[in-house]
Amino acid sequence: MDSCLQSVLNASPERWSLRLAVFDLDGTIKEASSPWMYLHRALGTETRAEMYHQQFIRGEISYLDWARLDSALWKGVPLSHVQDIFRDSPYRRGVRDLFAFLHCWRVACAVVSTGLTVQAEQVAADLGVWRTVANELEVQEGLLTGRAIVHVMEDTKGQIMSALRQEAGARPEECLAVGDGTADIDLFAQAGLAVAVCPRSDNVRNAAHHVIEDGDLSAIIPLIEGHFWSPDG
User: Fold this and answer.
1) Would you call 63 helix, strand, or coil by DSSP?
2) What is the CB neighbour count within 10 angstroms for residue 232?
3) What is the pTM of this model?
């Protein structure tokens, strides 16, 4: 990739200060903002799922109850079918260029998502992601059991990023965070460079250092170069 090669020619590793890049998945790396609703639409369970969603919004059920009710609608669905559905979910433009650039500089890349591990694992394999943390659908003998195992909630992404930073040996100023939703504000708070991609609210937009309104992730590359490469050493 031209911009990556040019950066390697112009900079030395000692002048490169980015060690960890943490991404939200849904609405950030992938276009669909909710993998839960994306799957519901594909499986014909959208009406019931929307009822549960509204109950959660009104505060009538907890996040854990919402996940439990949602996942129960998929009991008996083959895992292979779910995998096929998520393979068809489109990536945002420029994502492969961005990850090629990050790999060129040996930056550890992680995904933290309130979405589903079945999709996160596909993305990790496609893009070479170091760590993924997402919510799990229990599987037995190749079929979904209808049970969800929640590892990430809306208010726990910051804690997870702290653990990832410790594992990667990265200080906040050595981190990039990229997201689109309110839960990602906690990621932004621990990053030297925070980028909102098609942000879903003004709060998200205002919490980021930069905003990519058109969803083209390759636009993050010059932001990284400008922030993490020091020409003066």
Assistant:
1) helix
2) 4
3) 0.92
- Residue 14 banded pLDDT, cuts 50, 70, 90: low
Residue 9 is encoded by which pair of tokens?
Answer: 């020619």
Q: In this structure, are residues 21 and 178 in contact, taking their beta carbons and an 8 Å threshold?
A: yes
- CA-based nearest residue to 148, from 58, 232, 52, 74: 74
Q: How confident is the model at residue 9 (pLDDT cuts 50, 70, 90)?
A: very low
Q: For residues 208 and 220, give the distance between their C-alpha atoms in angstroms, rounded to a whole number.
A: 13
| Distance from C-alpha of 208 to C-alpha of 227, rounded to nearest angstrom | 14
Q: Please, which pLDDT band fits residue 16 given cuts at 50, 70 and 90? A: confident
- Calpha distance 39→229 (Å, rounded): 40
Residues 150 and 135 sit within 8 Å (Cβ to Cβ): yes
Question: Alpha-carbon distance 146 to 100, whole Å?
Answer: 37
| pLDDT tens sequence across 172-211 | 999 999 999 999 999 999 999 999 999 999 999 999 999 9
Best CA proximity match to 200, nearest among 176, 177, 179: 179
Dihedral through CA 216, CA 125, CA 192, CA 9, nearest 10? -80
User: Residues 119, 196, 189, 90: what is their CA dihedral angle, to the nearest 10 degrees?
Assistant: 0
